[in-house]
TrEMBL record:
Matching Pfam families: DUF1489 (PF07370)
Protein source organism: Sphingobium boeckii
Protein name: DUF1489 family protein
Amino acid sequence: MPLNITKVAFGCASLDILKERVAARVENEVAIVTTRYRPTRHEEIIGGSLFWIIKHHLVARQTILGFSEMEDEKRWRIHLDSRLVMVRSQPRRAHQGWRYLAAEDAPADFDMNDAGLAEMPSALRGELSALALI
């Protein structure tokens, strides 16, 4: 199983804001996130996911498609699937940069068809998820 990484969604107070931010970075079905250093274990991460942390909880993920170096800067691009997948909320401390997350420790995807959650307002889903009720 591929390795995953976690990253704080800095400045995002809600999943809706993260969705807007990701949508603004999508080009040809690929979202780009930049980082100063390429992960040492980058080959293990391709095919894994980047899990986003909002308010000290893992809330969503995107599949990692690859890495590329930026030409004019000493930074790296992380190429992500444009689709943001909600996951079962899991507490996580905030940190700088990214951290590795083993596949067995990663939260399960959130089933929106489960108990009519798709019709529920996202703010309410977020509150219930933060309380670990869903």
